[in-house]
């Protein structure tokens, strides 16, 4: 995967729960497109909600993949619920908490909570829940169509391996 929407894994309880964070920075190109200044208003840089959903998908996807040692190619099959109350702006931190609700040979369902931590003058900001994102994942090799995919796990790239290792989690894929 080319784009990473999580920066660090801060908690992993195998087969149960994972917490990841994303620091939103002005250095990210997409913030300059959402939304540039016009003749009527100044620039309003923000992380689009679709990318917040993708951050949860990456968090929950890694949790589901880790559950079986990354033997399965895990792909997002469905966004069951995506309710977000606001965007994230530069300087904020997003905290994604994904929990496995059901896990089978065919795939998994997860529930997710998104929290926002805004910068404050004293550096002591409390996280605020800004949304819930529930997802369904499929194990690609267990597809009902009988389609065969390459043996190597092309879903979890070197970027995810680096993310896990820099977060102190062994990544054997």
Task: Describe this entry's structure for a reader.
There is one protein chain. The chain has 173 residues and is an alpha+beta fold. The protein has one domain (8-159): Thiol Ester Dehydrase, Chain A. 19% of the residues lie in helices and 34% in strands. It has 3 helices and 6 strands, in the order E-E-H-H-E-E-E-E-H. It has helices at residues 29-33, 49-67, 158-166; strands spanning 8-13, 17-23, 74-84, 93-103, 107-117, 128-139. It has a 6-stranded antiparallel sheet with strand order 1-2-4-5-6-3. Strand 1 (8-13) and strand 2 form a beta hairpin. It is globular, with a radius of gyration of 17 Å.
Provide the fold topology:
Elements lengths: L7 E6 L3 E7 L5 H5 L15 H19 L6 E11 L8 E11 L3 E11 L10 E12 L18 H9 L7
Antiparallel strand pairs: 1-2, 2-4, 3-6, 4-5, 5-6
Write a brief structural summary.
The protein has three helices and six strands. It has 173 residues and is an alpha+beta fold.
